[in-house]
Amino acid sequence: MSRPAAGRSTATSPTVKRQGLRRLLPHPLLFLALLVMWLLLNMSVSPGQILLGSLIAYGAAWTMTAFDMEEVRLKRPAAMIRLAGRVLVDIFRSNLAVGRIILFGLPKGRSSGFMTVSLDLASHHGLAVLAIVLTATPGTLWMNYDPARGDLLLHVLDLDDEQHWIDLIKQRYERLLMEIFE
Amino acid sequence: MTAAPELPVWTALLVSLLVVAGAAITLIGSAGLWRLKSFYARVHAPTLGATLGTGGVLVASMLCFSVLGGRWVLHEVLIAVFLTVTTPVTLMLLSRATLHRDRAETQDEAPPKAKD
Amino acid sequence: MSALFQSAPWATLMLGCAITLAQILLALAMVCASLRMLRGPRAQDRILGLDTFYVNTMLLFLTLGMRQGSNFYYEAAVSIALLGFVGTVASAKFLMRGEVIE
């Protein structure tokens, strides 16, 4: 496979001029997440572990600059909490629905199949979260995304009403994701 | 055979409930792997075990060790985070590989490539 | 009410039975996954079975840890989860391209 242009991987490109906090600490969210993970893994909040975890997280955050990825910037914490709540509810609901299908079979006349949804969401991070959400709710499976058209190919276990699934994704998840990431 | 840690009654009740519910949901998911007819339908089945099934057992384990040790034991959260992040990746890769193979062999079930 | 906050022999017995039941259910789930692994019919079904098998094993280890009240099983469960992910990704990539190392 051919690699993308090698010149992109230098942190000196003009697009990544960092200001304020981000000059000292790139990817602050990643830093925080790694530190928390370290403390959880060691199950202690002693000063020594915090120092060691910070050092490791700091190194990892700087290593990430080599990839020159677009940084995660979250907006609207309220929308994040709403999304998390919705996803949690949907996990329970769709688990029940898929469990029923497995135990008793699909209702008569229904079948599973593929469908496409055209997304307006374009942020990479937003798409990644959408992929996690769709996989975490059993019954829908992310198959393919075409970035040029913004078309998402899905496989749905109970494809009774295509519009229902389109509404679910566009109204319930995509709007909030666009609020958070764009 | 039935050795178990000595927990207060409320914890024992909750842990028993969560652990059995989680295991039952995982079993239903794995049974789906066996019962469903086509591959694309079967890919949905393991997500049951990876979401609620794992969730139940992990929460039970957190509760059990937190009460047993008298302090918060939360490192099971890491397994949950790891599974939620990796399950989409594995399933996506697997189903895309299948799609690729089915298109190469022109099976009826796979949707055709988007027209350009 | 205070009885709820003390341990009781019947509660411990019930917890033991519940964990045993959960282990039996998980073992049955592993049987289902391995049947799919053995039966196929195609390679992707076997890989899917293997992936499910890994997750079920991880859960079984967690229940074992709860029974023993020991933390060592947690670490085993973490490494099983990691290895399962890497193994499935490598196999899926093999299906896609016909080789793992390009």
Automatic annotation (TrEMBL), chain A:
Membrane-topology descriptor: Multi-pass membrane protein
Subcellular location field: Cell membrane
Alphabetized UniProt keyword annotations: Cell membrane, Membrane, Transmembrane, Transmembrane helix
Annotated Gene Ontology cellular component terms: plasma membrane
A GO molecular-function annotation: monoatomic cation transmembrane transporter activity
InterPro entries: Cation_antiport_E
Domain of life of the organism encoding this protein: Bacteria
UniProt keyword Coiled coil present: no
Ranges that cross the membrane: 24-41, 47-67, 87-106, 126-145
Family: Belongs to the CPA3 antiporters (TC 2.A.63) subunit E family.
NCBIfam families: PRK08965.1-4 (NF006520)
Name assigned to this protein: Na+/H+ antiporter subunit E
Gene: phaE
TrEMBL record, chain B:
Gene expressing this chain: phaG
Matching NCBIfam families: CPA3_mnhG_phaG
Keywords: Membrane, Transmembrane, Transmembrane helix
One matching Pfam family: PhaG_MnhG_YufB
InterPro entries linked: PhaG_MnhG_YufB
GO molecular function, one term: sodium:proton antiporter activity
Superkingdom of the source species: Bacteria
TM spans (from-to): 12-36, 48-68, 74-94
Name used for this protein in its record: K(+)/H(+) antiporter subunit G
From TrEMBL, chain C:
Subcellular location: Cell membrane
Key words, A-Z: Cell membrane, Membrane, Transmembrane, Transmembrane helix, Transport
Signal sequence extent: none
One GO location term (cellular component): plasma membrane
GO molecular function, one term: sodium:proton antiporter activity
UniProt key word Phosphoprotein: no
Membrane-topology descriptor: Multi-pass membrane protein
Membrane-spanning intervals of the chain: 12-35, 47-66, 72-96
InterPro entries from the UniProt entry: MrpF/PhaF-like
Keyword Transmembrane helix: yes
Domain of life: Bacteria
One Pfam family in the UniProt entry: MrpF_PhaF
NCBIfam families in alphabetical order: PRK06161.1
Homology family: Belongs to the CPA3 antiporters (TC 2.A.63) subunit F family.
Name of the molecule in the record: K+/H+ antiporter subunit F
Lineage: Bacteria, Pseudomonadati, Pseudomonadota, Alphaproteobacteria, Hyphomicrobiales
